[in-house]
Structure formats: structure tokens, C-alpha cells
Amino acid sequence: MGNVASTIRGGVVVAVLLLGTPGTAQPVRSSSAFESAPNDPRAITVKATGDGQTDDSTAIQQALDAAAAKPGGGIVFLPAGRHRITRTLYIWPGVRLFGVGRTRPVLLLAPKTPGFQQGVGSMVFFAGNNPRGTTLDNWGNPIKGAPVVPVPPPTSVPFDASIADANSGTFYSALSNVDFEIGEGNPAATGVRQHTAQHTYLAHIDFRLGSALAGIYQVGNIGMNLRFFGGRYGILAEKTSPAWQYTLLDATFDGQRDAAIREHEARLTLVNTVIRNTPVGIDIDRGYGESLWGSDVRFENVSEAGVVISNENSVLTQIGFANALATNTPVFARFRDSGRTVEGRGQRYRVAEFTYGLTVAGLNQPGTYQTRITAAAIARLPKRRDPAIRALPPVSAWVDVRTLGVKGDNSADDTSAIQRAIDRHRVLYFPAGFYRVTNTLKLRPDSVLIGLHPGMTQIGLPDDLPDYRGVGSPKAMIESAKGGDAIVSGFGLSTGGINPRATAMLWRAGERSLVDDVKFQGGHGTTLADGSRFEPYNANHTADADVRKRWDGQFASLWVTDGGGGTFNGLWTPNTYANAGLYVSDTSTPGYVYEMSAEHHVRAEIVLDRVRNWQFFAPQTEEEAGESRNAIALEVRNARNILFANFHGYRVTRSIQPASAAVKLYGSTDIRFRNVHVNAESGFATCDAAGCGTYLRASKFPYANAITDVTRGGDVREREFAVLDITDATTATPATSSIAPVSELADGFYSIGGGAVDAGGKLYFIDRHHQRIHRWSESERLSVIADAPLDAVNLAVDASGTLMVLSSDGPEGTVYAIDPDKPNAVRTIVPTAVTGRSQARVALPGSVWNNGEFRDQYDPTRDHFTTLAEMFARDVAVPKPREYVSPNGSLVLPAYRVWQQGPANQLGWRFSDSLDTYGWVTGRVGDRIHIANASENRTYTGLLGPGGAVRDLKPFAPRGGESVATGSDGRVYVANGHVFVYDAAGREIGRIDVPDRPLQLLFGGEDRRTLYILTHHALYAARP
User: Fold this and answer.
1) pLDDT interval class at 684 (50, 70, 90)
2) Nearest-CA neighbor of 698 among 923, 850, 837, 815?
3) Which pLDDT does position 908 carry in this prediction?
4) pLDDT for the residue 20
5) For the domain that residue 908 is a member of, what is the CATH number?
6) Torsions phi, psi of 189, nearest 5?
7) What is the mean pLDDT of residues 923-934?
8) Is residue 16 included in any domain, yes or no?
9) 3-state DSSP: the chain helix, strand, coil percent, rounded to 5?
10) Residue 98: how many CB atoms within 10 A of its CB?
């Protein structure tokens, strides 16, 4: 006989039937999160039959289309019922679908529904364009003249080439409180394709999958209170469309045939997740790394391995768990490539911490690969922890603010009406609308403020309010009571651009409080009352178009202080006018931050000052080219007991200025970093006159270091690593293992690169910002040979000493030739068809970034994901059809396709492999050369062919960063934070330590044995 137990998962009471045999729990229907529909005039209610027999596809899609037709998107309510569908449903950008009723509505795929037997078929598809066929860019704005979707995903049923996948500009879409049920005979079926960006989520969903492929294929942003029963996989995923983290909270997987989760590069962050009755918990695909972090993960009856780790010799493989529990899981971790295993500790055990990956022992030191585990047997499993995300009160308790005199019409001053409502009612619901206030709204200790769409439900300040002018202390728009358990969920908060004392939210509530699904408006993704997107820039992205609106002219958007804490989930804070997205000060109350996107500030994205006991899970930061040139991702001052897990610090590829470090620490200790990813690469998919394609871009200006500890005087140059602890014992020990001394030749540059060496060993290089071409030799020292305003980017030198210069000027870029002694005689080179000149040297990028973004890499016929190595080999093997030939025919530059982003005259906004690299490598056709795949952080050798094609690729070294150079003795030198030295067979034999991060390496000098090392600001040399 069984019994029924109740628990709370993700804020919803769930009943689970417990059978007598261990490990055979059967699903009972979860209770509805919305037992009735809130009264919202803008919302659209689906008019469907819901009898489980009638095809409701058209009725549901019509409602989704109608919501998308409203400016800015909208809300759709799906009533309870069993809604049979026969084709893919499209959730358009900005549309949120909520199930409503005493029971959750179910989307039902009947047995053997046509179209779901082969390949991959999606029942629900989050789209990146709207029902009128307009394709949206990465900011969610319509692309002019783009009638064709460049890479239509193959998972729609029936296939529709006009539907674009969700992308990094797909905001606000969501699906909540709707279950899925897939009948037998649909082996290719998946419930949801969710390849979305900020303020999108799946929540309160049960997937009953039967023999289906997966509940979710392709993930984005956040999943909460999801339960997966059966199926081959619960989740099958590649990287998210913006390439940042996916966070899964309060989830359950039960009874998957192959693995609960199969994925790679999703930067999977798990909190309070149960995986049971399956062979493998998390299966990371062959050939791929992954940044996986799990807190409070339970493995129950997982027969083969809790986690299968692939690509174990890659810096991109970063695996960590804290407080994991296991029963009947004999192997906690298995390494796919080596076959090595990490065994459990008996039938039941607790893993206090497990980490694998590049482990950094201290400041100024490179990392080493380590496996660390602290585990012990336990007598019994404790009960499951409380949900990460609290429940909202039932809809029956919500009081509609419009019934209390609040207008929300973007015109009336609603301050007094809202404040009266707060004072008199605990739970308030704000229907979609724009609520103008002119003074601080003060919450009760137990206040609950609920909206359902941060883009279309906004509370905001008009500009230039008297109480927010001038110099003074921060003044909040919303202020919580001290120590309470208040909730604010589902809003956009706007403080305008001319209110210098404003902070959108001053939070002093306690550990049980919750701020959830809140967008701090004022930057990218801001929706205005008319549904249009706000543009925060003037024509050249150097300031706001309104000179009265000053970037970095307000206090932080979210300020947690005075003992404040709590849970902060799914927040997006890109307000360029604020001095930080999140500022936490003067508190030891625990704080838990899940999937926060803090972006586009002038100085710092997240600041902690005098803070203890906070944990950040999947914090993502982004620095824009205009406003964030000098910004850092995290500034931590006088803090202790802080965890940053799965941190992603990103500078956009458009950046044109160097930056020293993503994280700066001052006077802090017990700061734990787990899984750090600091980068500046991206991609874009589009169609133009030359056809459709994907464009992969690598910026030359990621953060030079991941971390600088200002107090201790040391750095961490590794930008990809799994473990670093900053403790009282941490010191900034100078690196001492250099195999050759390094001398500084010249400094004071803005950022140099694009170097080349002539036949006599003289070095030429570019300081692009100052549009100067320099020359260096031992006899002549440093000189300026050209300063023409031609935006020189990269150089090569032909056999006669003529410089071939690549400029980003022009739609395809431009190549011109100059004599170093007569630099003003500029000869433009026109590309011509490749002829395969056997004696000419070919110059090609020394480092290429290629990661297959935008195309699904899963081949269901082979059950195989195309690996990064396979994509790299495929793409570099394709010869370029045209080339630029030097005046004497001794050197050719393959003509790489150039892609333009933004205004035609915008410096640095053209991209190609040849423009993006720090410098070129050269060889003759048939030579074996070295080339780095930056997306793998790995160096390869290959045979050089005509048109810059590289074939017969072979892995050479596990590091492959900014540059690679080969010495006359056959040794190979790789710039990757330091200079790593390998013998001809690829064995590491030493390291050259450089005072700054090395960017380009070249051998020159009269005997060609001087290693020139270019950094952003200085030129160095070594004689290895």
C-alpha cells in the first residue's frame, strides 16, 4: 500500500504518491499556481474546447498571435482542460502564456501525431520573430530588409522556414502553469524549445513524456518548479542563444531512459534539484566542456553515474557541486575520455563539495587540473530542502489596484493611491499598465506586489522630479520595511534619466523576502508605454541623445543595505543612468542571487561593500562598447563569506578599449569563485545580399585578467577556471618559473597588435586607437612610420619589405600597400580570384573563434552533436575564393568575409576572422602551421592550402589563446595569460612570465631568435 505526502516545490504544493517499493514514486498532478485568472483588461483568454479530443492548436495560436499584435507583447490565459494539439505552437517575443484554473491545463500530444516521429519536433517553440514575419535583431528591434530567416530551426511541425529561433534579443516571453503530456508513438517529440534571453522562463510545469525524446530541447534563462517524468531525457540542450547561463531551480527528474539531462555549454546551474531512477544524472556531450554547478542536488537510484564529464583536458570543463546527496548512486562522477571514476561513499552519502577543472592556487599563478571531493557516508537522507523560490499567495488573495483608484495609464500620478493600497492591503495585483509615481512607495513588512510582465507592467518616475534633484542621499522609488518578508514580482521599474538621487529599489527586508522577475528599465530592452523599444544612445554611442540624461548619473538601481537580504531571482538590471545594477552594503543577512543579468553600467555592474553571507548563482555581466569602456563586472570591498558560482563576465565584441580585470577585490576574504568564464566573443546570424549565414566574432578587448586583488597586489590571468579561494592565507606570490627573462622595450601605448616582421627581423605593429604604425629594431629602437587616418588593423610584410595593411574601412574592409620609408604613397589592393601561387606566402589569422552558434548541432539520425573541433576543422578547411596579392606577388591575404554591425561609420564595428585576430601567421602552401581555435582554447597543427584553407588538423596543445608562434628550434609558443612553451610534439616544457597579458607573439631580430611579445600597453622581448 502507498501513502500520500505533500511538499512545496517552487512555490506550489505538490502531492506525490509514495509506493511501497523504493524508487518507484509515481506522479500525481501538481496543484495549479493560478487557480483563477487575474482580472487584466489587456490579457487575452484562449477560447478552446479542452476536451482532449478536439484539436485546439488553432485556438491557442490565435490567442498568442493576438497578444503579439499588441505593442510590446502581452499576456495570454489558457483555461483548465486537456488541450490536444497537432502542430507546433509559437510563443512570440514578449508574450507570456499562463495556465489558469483549479487544475493546470494540459497540452496533449496524442499517440502517433504526424510529424513527431523523426528528427526533433517541438510542441511549443519560443520564436525570435513575430507573427507578421518580422525578424528581430539581438536587441529585439525589427531588421530592415530582412525577409528571410537566416537559420530557421528544424524543429517546427510542420517545418516553417519563416520562423526564427529565439535569440539574445528575445525578452519577456514565458510559459507557466501548463503541463505537457506526450502519447506513445512520438519518439521525436519534445515539449518546449526555449532558446531565449532575459526575463524569460518556464515555471510550474509537469512533463509526462512517455517514450518521447525530451521535455525541453534548447534552454534559456530560467526554469522553476519543473518536473520531468519518463522520456529519453528530461532536458536535451546546447548552449543558450546569448551563450550565458541556464539556471534550473526546484526541479525533479524521474525515470528518464538514458539521462535526466543531456547537454553541453548550457552553463547549467542547478539548485534544489532531484534526479532519480535513471542511468545517468547529467550527461555532458562528447567533445564538449561545460560549466556545471549544482547546489543541493539529490541523486536517487542513479545506476551508472551522477555526472559524466567530457573533454576533461579543456579549460572550458568546470564542474562543481555543493551539498549533494546520493543514495544508490555508486559512481558520483565518471570521466568519459579517460574512463576514470569518482566513487560514492556507500549506499547513502553526502558530498560537501566536488570540483573538477582548472584550479587556481593563488594570485599570479596559472591553474592546474584538479579533482577535489569532500564526501562522507550518512545513515539516511535528510528531507528535501525548502524551495529556492517562495510561493506567491493564491490569486484569490490578490487585490486589483485598479479597484482602489490606481490608474496605470502613464499619465495620472498614482503615488497616493498606490501608497494607500499598500497600507491597507497585504497582496496587490497590478494589471499590465504604466504606473507613474512621484515619491517613495513604502512597503509594509509583509507586502506582496505582483505583476505578470516586466515589460508591460511598469512603475516609473517622470524625469526631473523636485524631490529627486540635486545633491543628496539616495531616495528610493520603492522602499521595503526593515527585516520583513516582502515580495515584489513581475515588474519593470524605471527611474527616468534626470533624477540624480534616485534608486529604484531600496531593500532592507530579511532573509525570507523575495525580489523576482524584475527589470530595472533605462537601457537595452526597455519597453516604452507605446510598445516601442527605448534607444539609450546618440548617433555614435558616446552618450544619450538627450544631453540632460547623464550616464552614471543616479544611484544604484537595486540597493540592498541596513541588514537587508533575501532571494533575488531572474533580475535584469541594465540601466545605464545608474551607477551600478546591484549595490549591497552593510549587511550580514544572507542573500541568494539567481540568474542576475547586470549590464551596461559605466563603472561597475555589481558592488558589495561590508557584506557577509551572500551567494551568487549564475551572475552574468555585460559591458557595452559605448558606456562601459571602463566598467568592471564585480567590485567587492570589505566582504567575506561570499560565493560566486558560474560567473560569466562578458565584454561585447564591439569594444574598442582595453580593460584590466573583470573583478576587483579590496580588503576581502573567504571569497569563493566556482566556474569563472570571462570572454568577449559572440556571433550573429543574418541575411544580406551575399546570402544567409552566421558570423562569429572575437573581440580584441576582453578583460585582460579575470580578477585583481588590489589589497594583496595580485591578479588571476586565467579567464576560464573552476576553483579559486581568496582567504586570509592567500598571497600574491610572484611567478618564478619563467624559462627566459623578459625585458620591456617600449610602453605607453593605447593597445598594440597586428604585428609583422620583415626579412631583416625588424618588427612592425599598430597602435590602432592612435592610428599609428610603429617600427622597432635594436639599432633604430622605436619609430613611427605612418599615422594616416586609415584605421589600420593588421599587418604583413612581403619579400620586398612592402607592408600589406588590413583596414576595417569600407564594407568589405580594405587592404592597401605602403613602403615603410614612403608611407604616404598608399596603393589600394583589389581582391582577385585565388590562383594558388606556389611560392607565395599566405597570411591567415593566428587565432580563430568558431563555436557553431545559432545552428542546432544535434543530428538525431546519428544521435550526435557536432563538436567544436569538428566545426573548426570543417570551417577552416574551406578556401576563400578571393585573395589580396602584394605588389611583388610574394604574399597573399585571403579575403575573409566582413560583416558590419551598426552604423557604417562606427569605429570597430566590422568583423571578420582576419580583422578579429591579434595577428597573422604565415606559411607556404603545403607547410604545416599552428593555429588556435579560441572557442576551444586549444592549439592545432594543420596543412596550409590555397585560399587560406587548413586541412589535416591535429590537436597540438590544450591551450590556445591570443597567439601562437614557432621558433627556429621547433618550439611552439602560445600566448594564453602567460607564454606557454611546447616542444615540437606538443609537450609543455616551460613558461615565460610577462608583466602584462601577452597578446601577440612573433620571432624577429637579426637572428630571428628574439621573441617579441606585444601586450596592450607595452612591447616586451625575450630570448628563450
Assistant:
1) low
2) 850
3) 54
4) 32
5) 2.120.10.30
6) -75, 140
7) 94
8) yes
9) 5, 45, 45
10) 23
Residue whose C-alpha cell is 530541447: 217
Q: Are 96 and 172 in contact (CB under 8 A)?
A: yes
Q: Say how far apart CA 690 and CA 532 lie, in whole Å.
A: 30
811 lies in the same domain as 915? yes
Is residue 812 located within the same domain as residue 915?
A: yes
Q: Is 236 exposed, middle or buried (0-12, 13-18, 19+ CB in 10 A)?
A: buried
How far apart are the C-alpha atoms of 45 and 191, rounded to whole Å? 22
- Residue 279 cell numbers, joined: 542511468
The rounded mean pLDDT for the chain is 92
Cell numbers that stand for 780 in this block = 633604430
> 574-618 pLDDT, tens per residue?
999 999 999 999 999 999 999 999 999 999 999 999 999 999 999
Strand pairing category for 487-489 and 920-924: unpaired
Indicate the residue among 617, 644, 668 that finishes a domain.
617
pLDDT in tens, 656-671: 899 999 999 999 999 9
Q: Whole-angstrom Cα distance, residue 255 to residue 209?
A: 10
Cell of 122: 517541438
Q: Distance (Å, rounded) from C-alpha 196 to C-alpha 201?
A: 8
Separation between Cα atoms, residue 637 and residue 801, nearest integer Å: 53
Confirm if 1016 and 1022 have CB atoms less than 8 A apart: no
Give me the sign of the Cα torsion angle 144, 148, 150, 153. positive
Considering the domain boundaries, does residue 710 fall inside one? no
All three cell numbers of 592, joined, read 541568494
Alpha-carbon distance 995 to 1013, whole Å? 11
* pLDDT tens track for 383-410: 999 999 999 999 999 999 999 999 999 9
Beta bridge partners, 90, equal 125
Question: Do the strands 669-679 and 822-829 form a parallel or antiparallel pair, or are they unpaired?
Answer: unpaired
Contacts of 564 (CB under 8 A, 6+ apart): 480, 482, 507, 508, 509, 510, 513, 584, 587, 589, 591
For residue 715, what is its C-alpha cell?
Answer: 591578479
Question: CA angle, corner 406, sides to 73 and 570, nearest 5?
Answer: 45
pLDDT at position 129: 86
Structurally, the chain folds into a number of domains equal to: 3
Single residue among 310, 333, 360 that ends a domain in this structure: 310
Q: What is the pTM of this model?
A: 0.95
Q: What does 624-639 look like in DSSP terms, one character per residue?
A: -TTT-TT-EEEEEES-
Closest CA to 437 of 403, 393, 478: 478
pLDDT at 13: 35
Judged against a pLDDT cut of 70, whether residue 858 lies above it is answered with: yes
Bridge partners, residue 8, by sequence:
13
Least confident of 59-68, 129-138, 510-519: 129-138
Show the domain range for 968: 742-1022
Q: Write out pLDDT tens, residues 557-582.
A: 999 999 999 999 999 999 999 999 99
C-alpha cell at 878: 574551406
CA atoms within 13 Å, Cβ hemisphere of 912:
24
